[in-house]
Amino acid sequence: MSFRDIHVRGRTVQLYESGSGNPLLYLHGIADMHGLARGNCRFQDSMAAKHHVIAPGMPGCVGSDEDNSLESIDDLRFHTLEVMDQLKIEKIDIVGNCVGGWLAAEIAVHNPERVGKLALIGASGLFVSGEQIGDLFMAVQPLNGKIDDVRHMLFDDGNGSLAEEWIPDELTGKEQGMLRYKTFRCVARFGFKPPYFYDQKLVERLYRFKGEALVVWGNNDNFVPRSHAAAYAEGFPNGSVEIIEGCGHAVHLEAPDVLAEKVVAFLS
Question: Which of 57, 160, 220, 235 could form a disulfide with 64 if both were Cys (CB 3.0 to 4.6 A apart)?
Answer without folding.
Answer: 57
